[in-house]
Amino acid sequence: MWDQIVLGLLLIPKLGLVRESTHGKFLISQSNLNEISSSGYKFYNYSQTIDHFNYRPESYDIFQQRYAINDKYWGGAKNNSPIFVYTGDEASLESVIRSAGFLVDNAPHFQALLVVIEHRYYGESNPFGSRKQAYQNTSTLGYFSSTQALADYAQLITELKKNLSANNCPVIAMGGSYGGMLASWFRLKYPHIVIGAFASSAPILYFDDITPENGYLSIVTKDFQETSKSCYRTIRESWFEIDKFGLEINGLSVLSQIFHTCRPLNNTPELKDALASIYSAAAQYDDPTTQPVNLLCSGIDGAFDEATILERVFTGITPWNGKKQCFDIDVYNIDDSASETAIGWYWQTCSEMVMPIGCDSNDTMFQAQPFNIYNYTMDCQKKWGVTPRPHWMTTEFGGHNIKSVLRNFGSNIIFSNGLRDPYSSGGVLCNISDTIVAIYTTQGSHCLDILPATPADPEWLIAQRNEEVKIIERWIAEYKANIIA
Fold first, then answer.
1. Over the stretch 403-412, which tens digit does the pLDDT of each residue have?
2. What is the pTM of this model?
3. Shared-domain flag, residues 45 and 179
4. Where is the signal peptide (predicted)?
């Protein structure tokens, strides 16, 4: 199903002594006493409220939420130096820190304090102890939502500023992908806590009917067409060939041999889903240095002359498999053995994060599979016993008529995108006002600008980051001017 294939791709991916002091509810994580990253982060636990929106007895229960601080470059509270907060997404704290290079790269320039907060139910920030206990049913998963996560961040930041005597220090939220959505929503929901938000590759418009359902797959198709028309045609024709083999006696066995699958195929959809996942991932993360789309197409176009369509496809995906001896068609499946990140995001997409991704016939290089809310709901009810709320995100955070709505009350948000990222189809691509701005690059991929800078970065990416820095400089200058006034 396209919904789970593509939504699964939204996932993103030395230590010293920790200070022995404690600050109110901020307790040092004993399990992480030796876990300080090479970039200077120190790990802590915060006693977080389990339910911010009720007053039942259990709502007052707490869980240990992990967060990390890097104060290496901070100018201090007396100087009203800024605080950059990465709104944790669907990954562990360590994974988020490795991805959030923009914060560390720019901390010296801004003399910023860096704070990264782990999203509830991911990593070690589990409200019910073990993953098994937390994910057992809707009674325990009912506290797993974006609104609860934003309230976590608001409460933690408020108390952290208080304990650091940093009440006048401006806070800017930052995040990529789902974390970028959270950053933008944080600014809209808690403008008294964060003065601005930098949202990288945040598809906040891929809900309800705002974005055409084929938006994601149309960009995947465009990326392959622009790279190689022959590669695009081969992929487009391959689905028919797979279906043809599936109807033949021993056809599945032949397909298993052609693609060197790690186990025998049970049906053709599982092979097609695995291939579609590879193509989608390659387009989404089409980094200008590694160029995965070009890598795939080079193999497909460079196959031996007598190769069949399916043999060409296999030649193309072989480098993708790396050192694996066989093609693991189950790598993108989301079952009980999947990672906490994958299964946690599965819950989120089945409850509130309903992105209607699909395609009709002839409008992409994929076979037609329109988004079907009935099938989507049946799948979620079977897995979790929960009925998705497809209209809740626009009810809670808006999205319809975003220009006219946010122009009236919103401010200080950067929406950045790379147009080779399929999720850019659901992003904000034009300025809403003087202070809610869209920055995009035609060659960029998913979250590229918020990742760590490298010497190989192209000039257009450097220019994009420089523009983002200048905007944040302006926010901070305006805030400090108002504080002094």
1. 999 988 899 9
2. 0.92
3. yes
4. 1-18
